[in-house]
Design goal:
The structure holds 2 protein chains of 2 kinds.
Chain A (H helix, E strand, L loop, with lengths): L21 E3 L2 E3 L1 H57 L10 H70 L5 H99 L1 H27 L19 H6 L16
Antiparallel strand pairs in A: 1-2
Chain B lengths: L2 E5 L3 H13 L3 E5 L2 H10 L4 E4 L8 H8 L10 E5 L4 H10 L3 E4 L4 H11 L2
Parallel strand pairs in B: 1-2, 1-3, 3-4, 4-5
Helix pairs in contact in B: 2-3
The chains are: A mainly alpha, B alpha/beta.
């Protein structure tokens, strides 16, 4: 607290040691006259102390205002960073988090790869079925060959029947007609067999080429899927690495923010010197007032008496102090620059 | 948000305490001396009062005595924040109804910890 620069009247007597006297311009003065000449300096010194105290206080208030802004901005940054990092916490399932996004992205890519692999699997199964169909076609071809052999046997049998019918003369005429009919039917079945055989050959050729196409496609797909997997894995690893670095940087920023807050706290503590200084100055001013009052009471208010010169007193440089001392000076504005 | 009334005749001290408390998430109102504080409390309810000891118009001890007569302030924490550290003065504060005594210069972190302790 400031004892608020209030002077307190004090009528207590002041004892001056005997023989104490001053000399002005070679002229001896009484103690009273000597002290009276210095009295105006008391109020000047008090005023300077008050001004100094007020200036320090005003500066401290300004510094505090600046701290307020710095601290608010630092706090806002730290809060935002903390908010981001909390979403990025270990095992975070928050879809807004970077890790969540990477996880989602990775999941989607895995699904696409799985679908591609499934398509590959379907195509592999198609290859197997075509192979089975080819095998079945081969069996049909074998069966047709057997039918061909049977037809050949029938034809020979019918020829032999005709020969025997000729030997039998008119009695074998009917039998010869039947033999001829058997030969005709056998030839017809041979034609059908040949057509079926040709169709099966064509079918097997088509199946073979389809099989080759599917195999090539399948092999290419597998290679592409493997390559995609590899590229996706690499990109995700890079992304996670970059994210890790970013997290590290943000954590560092949060720590810096905390340090800044702590530094500001220390500065606030340090700035409180002003309160003590202000109180001490107030006490000195008060004591100067008491001293001045006592001197005036003791020796009377000698307004108009010759004022002692500034010789021997400190020189003042600040314009406010000069103003207090009644010394004229052109005032410069804050921040003004004057080049000569 | 908890509301704190700071009473100090030094504007810089008020500013420093206000800054510290605002950083701790408190809402702060200010008064220059005891009488100013009593006037402000007529229209505003606060959760805690932090006052200096030596002030013009009305000092901290008198303020506390007055505050303890107000029903709404009977059980509210009142802290002294002063450069005065004499045991006799502390006793006076305690007798007047102060909850605690903090000697300036204060440590911002400790000040916030103290507030957290005394506020229910």
């Amino acid at each position: 607290m400031n004892r608020a620069f209030q002077s307190q009247p004090d009528s207590a007597a002041l004892s001056i040691p005997p023989g104490m006297a001053g000399v002005v311009a070679g002229q001896s003065l009484s103690v009273e006259a000597e002290l009276a000449r210095y009295l105006p300096h008391f109020s000047r010194m008090s005023e300077q102390l008050k001004q100094t105290s007020l200036q320090i206080e005003s500066s401290v208030v300004e510094v505090c205002d600046s701290f307020q802004g710095i601290a608010q901005r630092a706090k806002a940054t730290v809060d935002r960073t903390k908010g981001f990092l909390s979403r990025e916490g270990e095992g975070s399932s928050d879809t807004r988090s970077f890790e969540g996004l990477i996880e989602n992205c990775s999941g989607t890519l895995v699904k696409i790869l799985n679908l591609t692999e499934e398509a590959g699997e379907v195509s592999r199964r198609a290859v197997d079925r075509i192979r089975q169909m080819d095998k079945a076609s081969q069996s049909i071809s074998d069966a047709i060959e057997q039918l061909e052999r049977i037809a050949g046997g029938n034809k020979i049998l019918a020829l032999n029947a005709r020969i025997e019918a000729a030997r039998a003369g008119s009695y074998g005429a009917g039998f010869a007609v039947v033999a001829m009919e058997v030969i005709s039917q056998t030839e017809k079945s041979q034609k059908v067999n040949a057509q079926v055989s040709e169709l099966i050959t064509n079918l097997r050729t088509l199946a073979g080429s389809t099989l080759d196409d599917l195999k090539r496609l399948n092999d290419k797909d597998r290679q592409r899927v493997e390559q995609c997997k590899h590229e996706v894995d690499e990109s995700l690893r890079d992304l996670q690495g970059a994210h890790g670095e970013m997290k590290k940087m943000l954590t560092g920023m949060t720590e810096e923010g905390a340090l800044l807050a702590s530094d500001i706290g220390a500065a606030v503590r340090g700035l409180q010197f002003q309160d003590r200084t202000s109180q001490r100055i107030a006490h000195v001013v008060e004591d100067l007032g008491v001293l001045s009052t006592r001197l005036k009471t003791r020796f009377g208010d000698r307004t108009g008496a010759e004022v002692a010169s500034d010789d021997g007193f400190s020189s003042y440089t600040m314009h406010e102090e000069r103003a207090v001392a009644g010394i004229g000076e052109t005032e410069s504005g804050a921040g003004e620059v004057e080049l000569f | 948000m908890r509301k704190v009334l700071i009473v100090d005749d030094a504007v810089s001290m008020r500013q420093m305490v206000k800054f510290t408390l605002q950083q701790g998430g408190y809402d702060v109102i200010e008064a220059e001396h005891g009488q100013d504080a009593l006037n402000k409390l007529r229209n505003t309810a606060v959760d805690l009062v932090m006052t200096d000891l030596n002030m013009p118009v009305m000092d901290g001890i008198t303020l506390i005595q007055n505050l303890r007569r107000i029903p709404a302030m009977k059980s509210k924490p009142i802290l002294m924040l002063t450069t005065e550290g004499l045991a006799a003065k502390k006793e006076q504060g305690k007798a007047a109804g102060a909850t605690g005594w903090i000697v300036k210069p204060f440590d911002p972190e400790k000040l916030l910890q103290t507030l957290a302790k005394v506020l229910p």
